[in-house]
Predict the structure.
Amino acid sequence: MINERAEILKALEAGPLVLRRLVRDLPDETIRRRPAEGEWAIVEVVAHLADTEERTLGRTIRMLSEEEPFLEPYDPDALALERAYLGMDLAAELDRFESLREEQASLLAGLGDAGWERVGAHGEHGRITVQQLAAHTAGEDADHLAQIARMIPA
């Protein structure tokens, strides 16, 4: 039988390694080039992943410690402008993402059934469990890793 939680953890733990391998040795011009108007450059996607992980970890902690907390949505595009993602240091954002993801994966790995089933009320998605949030995060990783891969010159 496939253990869905173990599969989610494998995907979450792989994200930082795959991301580092994708972007290693890329010149600054490549990591800061936006592929089209309104689209993010590689460094912006990496900063977004780190910010998203920070929020996901905070949401997970709240879901585990509060009864059905409200999980405020946020505007990633507004955050990218506010934090000036395009000018961020890629290495620092990779480190931040990896550190936060390690903390998140460790927290999830220690949960029993009751923890994975804890619920929060997301402002956009409605009631979600810790497991659904983790699965969504793993899916978003795949999306963003593919987004970055498409921006790397052959």
About this structure: DSSP finds seven helices and three strands in the chain. The first helix runs from residue 4 to 23.
